[in-house]
């Protein structure tokens, strides 16, 4: 009797102290193995008789059940512990296959805005911005285009209020007004942004992009304008020589005004910028009209300068060989992944602006 | 603004080529948008040799077409395409006037088509679209269909500050100033045996009209225009209507001088009043529409009715027709901003309103009506009255001060003054 009890006690204390999985097997064989302590007692059963034999066997079996259940319990406990430890120590599953990485692309319009900004930024222009919603004053009146002036007809304007006081800006030129009204001369800014006109076909979309340039100081003349544009076009199109012509034109907010054409030709179905005998209009410019300066509280007898505006979408189409303006705004992921740019390719002069 | 080289040479003596003219126009700020060098030569007289059913389509025919140089295969959907028909063939590259579609060699249901056979409506000749054009058999195969009218058409875009170039004469004047030739002098018009002008025009104060000149012509016959005038009108893409209307259109394009001709018998009491409109007045215009007016538009009226919207459009009740016998020619000056405002408000964009909104040459006012009267007499007969003017009569030349040092400072090129 006491033998069984002491074996149970012995087992209980041993199993209690086990903390490693492998040791359980050892304990199990120590008590229940072929030569185990409890197994040895079982061998004594045939020698006993009557009630004694019955009681002894019963107690032995109970002890065996007890041992088995404790081993089971300990096994579960330790296995669970081991899994927990493994999970926390091997949080990264190096055996899983890698997930594919998807890159977003930079839209050609964004890319061109970045390129234009980088080029002008290096020669002293800072970037100014204005809202898409404008007042009629900033968009027209301050730009020397009074009500009923026929030049207003050239812009198919989206008016947002019945009294026509609020509109979607038809050009980026109101940023000139905002810039001049909010600071003192000199000014040297570019202003890229969205513009809106009620027009839609293969070469016109109701929303498009322009970049405005303004340089006002005491002695900024048309020669500076020509030089800056020549520099910009060469950098932007990555060419050494550019054929460019200034064609007299008219904008109410500049005097004199010019439209600028660049030479191009088509060779083997590809457009080559800067040579050839065909002309392509790319921007409008001129010397800021004294009335505009006056409207912005700048004294035209002390300050003068130039302004220009170009279509960003047009520049992007030319440079990257995109034929239909509308495709810019269709959000077709296949188109974007074909014409888009690597986000890490940030335009900078030292890399050159060619692609 | 569209014009031809031969029209330009009415006013400009020059030996310049079309290319030189184009280059010079661009240099002086009159941007050449397009020169249509007779794209019409893509349209030729052709003969269908054989028209057979398309194997894969019930309504289409496959035609063997003799285009003069060679025989081509064309797929055609017209019912009247048949053996032996003389018609108009548009070759690949042609642009169909009606829908601006460019003709290409295409495959239509498995059969190659090398061009198109055209209907009158597709060529903007008439509204006829039920079948292809049927020409008489004495036409020469391979000849250009538009043979009488293939002079290059120069199209320039005129910026709002250059209303002086909304007439061929002004363009010639500017080209001559650039040195491309010499400007032919405008001949003074001397009208003999004038009758007395029986009309009276009253301009109310601040009515948007600063001067109104008018000439009365008695006993005209508003016939079809003679060939030279029709050709002129056609050459710039307009449609000839009747001699009197064609003459006013001709002078508008030639001199940037919009005119209006009234049937004089329909004006009551021979008295014209120029005044501002009142709210809710109604007016039936020449475009067969009724307009409900707001306050403050410039109106040409008589005692009973509205004759026209000043500088914008004439009225239906007093328009000239082939029955008109006595007419009144109006040559007036309308205020640019009011004209612009009214035409925008009512959505009427006429050739006249476009010009008045930008400003016209005041000195052409009287000359325009004299020239119209003379041409009308030559073509339609009749007796001409003296020209009367209500409002401003004398226009002093304006001086423009050109500051040379300011110019040099703005442009950046030093220029010295040289007296001559």
Summarize the structure.
With about 350 residues, chain A is α+β, with helices and mostly antiparallel strands. Chain A is about 40% helix and about 20% strand.
For the record, the CATH class of the largest domain in chain A is Alpha Beta
Largest interface by Cβ-Cβ < 8 Å = A-B, 21 and 22 residues
Query: Which sheet architecture does the biggest sheet of chain B show?
Result: 5 strands, antiparallel
The shape of chain B is globular
Kindly report the spatial arrangement of strands forming the biggest sheet of chain B. Answer: 6-5-4-7-10
User: What is the CATH superfamily classification of the largest domain in chain A?
Assistant: Bira Bifunctional Protein, Domain 2
Q: Structural class of the helices, strands and pairings of chain A?
A: alpha+beta
Integer count of domains of chain A:
2
Q: Find the CATH topology of the largest domain in chain A.
A: BirA Bifunctional Protein, domain 2
Detail the poorly predicted runs of chain B. none
Distance between the termini of chain A: 94 Å
- How large is the share of residues in beta strands of chain A? 15-25%
What's the average pLDDT of chain B?
Answer: 89
Determine the fraction of residues in helical runs of chain B and give it as a percent range.
10-25%
Characterization of this structure:
- The complex is a heterodimer of chains A (355) and B (420).
- Chain A has 355 residues and is of the alpha+beta class.
- Chain A has helices at 2-17, 21-32, 37-42, 50-89, 108-122, 136-139, 174-181, 222-237, 290-295, 312-320, 333-339; strands at 126-127, 133-135, 166-168, 187-196, 207-217, 244-251, 254-267, 270-273, 278-288, 304-311.
- Chain A has 2 domains: 2-89; 108-340, BirA Bifunctional Protein, domain 2 (2-Layer Sandwich), CATH 3.30.930.
- In chain A, the strands form 2 sheets. In chain A, strands 1, 4, 5, 6, 7, 8, 9 and 10 form an 8-stranded mixed β-sheet that branches.
- In chain A, a hairpin with a 2-residue loop joins β6 and β7.
- Helix content of chain B is 21%, strand content 26%.
- Chain B has 420 residues and is of the alpha+beta class.
- Chain B has 3 domains: 7-36 and 154-183, 2-Layer Sandwich (Phenylalanyl-tRNA Synthetase, Chain B, domain 1); 40-148, OB fold (Dihydrolipoamide Acetyltransferase, E2P); 200-391, Phenylalanyl-tRNA Synthetase, Chain B, domain 3, CATH 3.50.40.10.
- In chain B, the strands form 7 sheets. Chain B has a 5-stranded antiparallel β-sheet, with no helix packed on it. A 5-stranded mixed β-sheet of chain B has the order 13-16-19-20-21.
- The longest helix of chain B is centred in the C-terminal third of the chain and has 16 residues, at 365-380.
- The A-B interface holds A 147-151, 153-154, 219, 221-224, 247-250, 252, 256, 259, 287, 304 and B 26-29, 31, 159-162, 336-338, 340-341, 344, 357-358, 409-413.
């Amino acid at each position: 009797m006491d033998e069984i009890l002491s074996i149970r006690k012995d087992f209980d204390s041993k199993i209690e102290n086990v903390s490693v999985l492998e040791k359980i097997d050892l304990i199990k064989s120590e008590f229940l193995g072929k030569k185990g302590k409890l197994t040895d007692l079982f061998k004594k059963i045939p020698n006993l008789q009557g009630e004694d034999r019955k009681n002894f066997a019963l107690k032995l079996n109970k002890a065996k059940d007890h041992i088995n259940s404790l081993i089971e319990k300990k096994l579960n406990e330790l296995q669970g512990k081991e899994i927990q430890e493994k999970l926390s120590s091997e949080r990264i599953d190096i055996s899983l296959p890698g997930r594919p990485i998807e890159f977003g692309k930079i839209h050609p319009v964004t890319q061109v805005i970045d390129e234009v900004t980088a080029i002008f930024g290096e020669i002293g222009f800072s970037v100014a911005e204005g809202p898409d919603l404008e007042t009629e004053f900033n968009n027209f009146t301050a730009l020397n285009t009074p009500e009923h002036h026929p030049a207003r007809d050239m812009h198919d304007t989206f008016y947002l209020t019945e009294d026509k006081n609020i509109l979607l800006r038809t050009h980026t030129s109101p940023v000139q007004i905002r810039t001049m009204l909010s600071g003192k001369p000199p000014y040297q800014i570019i202003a890229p942004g969205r513009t809106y006109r009620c027009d839609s076909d293969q070469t016109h979309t109701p929303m498009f992009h322009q970049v405005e340039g303004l340089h006002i100081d005491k002695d900024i003349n048309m020669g500076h304008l020509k030089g800056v544009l020549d520099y910009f076009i060469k950098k932007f199109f990555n060419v050494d020589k550019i054929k460019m012509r200034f064609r007299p034109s008219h904008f109410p907010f500049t005097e004199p005004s010019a439209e600028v054409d660049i030479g191009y030709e088509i060779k083997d179905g590809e457009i080559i910028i800067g040579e050839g005998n065909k002309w392509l209009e790319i921007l409008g410019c001129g010397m800021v009209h004294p009335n505009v300066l006056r409207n912005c509280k700048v004294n035209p007898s002390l300050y003068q300068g130039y302004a220009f505006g170009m279509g960003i979408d047009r520049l992007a189409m030319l440079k990257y060989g995109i034929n239909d303006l509308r495709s810019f705004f269709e959000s077709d992921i296949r188109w974007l992944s074909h014409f888009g740019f690597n986000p890490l390719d940030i335009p900078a002069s030292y890399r050159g602006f060619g692609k | 603004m569209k014009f031809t080289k031969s029209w330009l040479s009415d006013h400009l003596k020059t030996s310049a080529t079309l290319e030189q003219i184009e280059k010079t126009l661009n240099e002086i700020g009159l941007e050449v948008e397009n020169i249509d060098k007779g794209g019409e030569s893509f349209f030729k007289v052709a003969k269908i040799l054989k028209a057979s059913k398309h194997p894969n389509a019930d309504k289409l025919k496959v035609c063997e077409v003799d285009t003069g140089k060679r025989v081509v295969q064309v797929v055609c959907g017209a019912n009247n395409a048949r053996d032996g028909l003389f018609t108009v063939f548009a070759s690949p590259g042609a642009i169909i006037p009606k829908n601006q579609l460019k003709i290409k060699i295409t495959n239509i249901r498995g059969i190659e088509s090398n061009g198109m056979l055209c209907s009158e409506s597709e060529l903007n000749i008439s509204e006829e679209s039920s079948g292809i054009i049927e020409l008489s058999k004495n036409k020469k195969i391979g000849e250009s269909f538009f043979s009488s009218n293939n002079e290059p058409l120069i199209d320039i875009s005129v910026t709002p500050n250059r209303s002086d170039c909304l007439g061929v004469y002004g363009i010639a004047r500017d080209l001559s100033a650039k040195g491309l030739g010499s400007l032919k002098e405008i001949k003074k018009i001397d009208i003999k045996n004038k009758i007395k002008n029986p009309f009276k025009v009253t301009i109310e104060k601040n009515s948007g009209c600063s001067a109104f000149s008018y000439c009365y012509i008695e006993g005209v016959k508003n016939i079809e225009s003679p060939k030279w005038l029709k050709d002129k009108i056609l050459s710039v893409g307009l449609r000839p209507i009747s001699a009197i209307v064609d003459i006013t259109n001709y002078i508008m394009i030639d001199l940037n001088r919009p005119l209006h001709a009234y049937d004089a018998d329909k004006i009551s009491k021979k008295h014209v009043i120029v005044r501002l409109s009142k709210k809710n007045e109604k007016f039936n215009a020449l475009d067969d529409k009724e307009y409900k007016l707001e306050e403050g538009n410039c109106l040409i009226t008589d005692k009973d009715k509205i004759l026209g919207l000043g500088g914008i459009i004439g009225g239906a009740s007093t328009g000239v027709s082939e029955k008109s016998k006595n007419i009144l020619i109006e040559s007036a000056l309308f205020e640019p901003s009011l004209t612009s405002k009214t035409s925008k408000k009512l959505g009427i964009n006429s050739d006249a309103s476009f010009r008045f909104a930008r400003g016209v040459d005041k000195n052409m006012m009287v000359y325009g009506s004299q020239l119209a009267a003379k041409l009308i007499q030559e073509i339609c007969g009749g007796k001409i009255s003296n020209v009367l003017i209500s409002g401003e009569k004398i226009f002093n030349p304006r001086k423009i001060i050109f500051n040379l040092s300011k110019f040099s400072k703005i442009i950046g090129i030093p220029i010295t003054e040289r007296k001559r």
